[in-house]
Amino acid sequence: MAMTASDEMAPIALDGGRKARGKLTHTRIRLMMLVLLTAFGLVGMRLFQLGNTVVDSSIEGQARDAITATRPAILDRNGIEMAGDIRVPSLYAEPNRMVDKNEAVSELRSVLPDLDAKWLKGRLDRDKGFVWIARELTPQQRDRILTLGIPGLDFLTESKRFYPGGSEASHILGMVNIDNQGIAGIEARMDRDDVALLQNLGFARGRDLAPVSLSIDMRVQHAMREVLLDALSRYKAADAAAVMLDVHTGEVVGLVSLPDFDPNDPRTFNDLWMGKKNQRFNRITLGRYELGSTFKTITFAAALDAGAIKMTDSFDARFGIKFGRYTIDDFHGKHRILTVPEIYKYSSNVGAIKIMQTLGKDNYRAFLTRIGFDDPLAIELPETIRSDIPKTFSDVVAATAAFGHGLSVTPLHMASAMAALVNGGTLLPATLYKRSPAQAASLGKKVVSEATSERIRYLLRLNALAGSGTHANKLADGYRVGGKTGTAEKVINGRYSSTHNLDVFASAFPIDAPRYAMVVLVDDAKPENEHSGDTAGWNAGEATGRIVHRVAPLLGIAPSFDDQLDSALVPPELRSDARE
Amino acid sequence: MIRWLNLGLLVASAVALVGVYGVKFHSEGTAAERAALERQIGEQQRQLSMLKADWAVLVQPGHIEPIIQRHAEALGLQTVSPKQIKSFDDLPMRPDDLDPAALTQFLNAIESGVDPIAALIEAN
């Protein structure tokens, strides 16, 4: 309208009398147009700005992003769920929207009596838009709070970590805190390793992450834990632990350390476990021990592989060996000349030292490095420790090391070495994730020859048939266990105690074509009854036998009572027809 | 003419007003519907996660074993002995010289209520 007016008035402006008024109108119109243009310009710019912003400003949206952060489900090797997320309601308040805060406090406490009134009041008195009141409630609690009808209260659905197996695999899985961050075990390791996963966590809202498959077999894990629990009461032991490896892939099939905890219940992480301490301590990866005579297997493998001894050799074990003031002698001394298999069978310390000396102490030390004892554990757990082995061996240290004293390694180091010694000589890094034999092939490191591996298998079987492993063999009849005992005196107040032992059994089965290697520890065991002893064969050995008896059928190992299998293990140089 | 134009614009703005209000109202309704659906989905996901967790507990070996222990006596359950496991390769081949007459006699014996094999096992 203004435009039309100015157009029509332009010629009229020539009329002298109206000139002044016309000019005034003209100015007003221009001013008006300027104001309108500015106003529309502002509106347009605002529209442009709004069009270009991504709206996520509501506090609820932000909070939901952060807390429904889901974690991937953890499955065992057969798809049984070991850890998963359940969605539970959590209560929050928006204090700036609340009407009567005192009333809200008293009503809330009628449903959640655990809440401290003073704490709750202080929390609600802050003029904030968002405060947590209670996390991870039950659906029943949520319904009761909803019926109270307090304004300014609302719920968010949160993910809570749930472990269906309870304590079964506690040391493998570890635990998460209330914000779903891993604080122990593979949960912590998954967070630390996978930066991508962490980033995902923030965005993994309502979207399921791909589940992670572990190498653990829950059936084996359960059986191992049951047998160890039984061992604790049967032998009145302080604690017990066991680990089983697949010798062809290095996968950990089962790993138990007792005492343990229930990852569903944070209190068990700090409280005592059946009156015992150290429930968080993973004895398999974080504990290092003098593993005693089980080390003789390593000594024999080192000497056989270097060609320093032959299976047909004999050594004089009539007298103890003197080192200065000390004399090292045998526990069950035969005190005669022993052949190499006899030294192993009777677990002769003197014989083992002589074999080590034939090999040379530096060669022996080098072999310990080769078999992986100096390497950090490859297993995907944050709770690991390195071995404690002197850098160089003196004569005495080398002598004690030959039968497993004066150096400590973790049970998992020993299990990996056992796997390498029976699988044909390939050392594989232990893993908790699924691994195929093809993947394992590229990771393996040849540490001993196939011929050495064959002889070690024979020695292990010999010990199970006629040596200290007979208890294990009897209980696992048909599944061809081979293994070596180790009874190490525990160091108490800086001295070896003759009454407190750490009993170890390092084994493999079925020994004619090994598939699994296992190390079982029973700490401070007492004799089961007056007819039994307290050395490793009686407790760790029996526990091994019970475990194998239960898990071998599950793992698809066919039992066989064919003596041919055992006689086929005898190396050619020891066969009677070879000697003739 | 200007008057008609103004009138037209006035009507147009009135129609636009009603239209915009309608759209706004409709979109609010849709948003409420969406929120309700989202809530429902959330609730169902929550129930689903609970059911999944239940299932995971029920299939745990550690959950099944105590049940078996409890009913072992009533059902006569025992651990499988290694001696009970055999493979097909361990079965002997059927003899070539099978005697048809003896087989008929054996089947007749079973029919008449006498089991010679059971007698043989009991004798041992």
Could you characterize what this model shows?
The complex is a heterodimer of chains A (580) and B (124). Helix content of chain A is 41%, strand content 17%. Chain A is of the alpha+beta class and 580 residues long. The longest helix of chain A has 34 residues, at 19-52. The radius of gyration of chain A is 37 Å and the shape is elongated. The N and C termini of chain A lie far apart (129 Å). Chain B is mostly helical and 124 residues long. Chain B has a domain at 1-76. Chain B has four helices and no strands. Chain B has helices spanning 2-58, 61-75, 100-111, 116-123. Chain B is rod-shaped. Chains A and B meet through strand 2, helix 10 and helix 21 of A and helix 1 and helix 2 of B.
Question: What are the salient characteristics of this protein?
Answer:
heterodimer, A: 580 residues, alpha+beta, 23 helices, 18 strands, elongated, B: 124 residues, 4 helices, 74% helix
Briefly characterize the structure:
By secondary structure, chain A is an alpha+beta fold. Chain A is built from 23 helices and 18 strands.
Largest sheet of chain A: 5 strands, mixed
Q: Number of DSSP strands of chain A?
A: 18
- Largest interface: chains, residues each: A-B, 35 and 22 residues
As a percent range, the share of helical residues of chain B equals over 70%
Number of strands of chain B: 0
Give the topology string of chain B: H per helix, E per strand.
Answer: HHHH
Percentage of helical residues of chain A? 40-55%
Radius of gyration of chain A: 37 Å
Structural class of chain A comes to alpha+beta
Report the principal-axis shape of chain A: elongated
Averaging pLDDT over every residue of chain B, what do you get? 87
Quaternary organization: heterodimer
Rounded to the nearest angstrom, the distance between the terminal CA atoms of chain A is 129 Å
Shape of chain B: rod-shaped
- Total helical segments of chain A: 23
Overall pLDDT of chain A? 85
Summed up, the helix count of chain B is 4
Low-pLDDT runs of chain A? 56-67
Estimate the strand proportion of chain B. under 5%
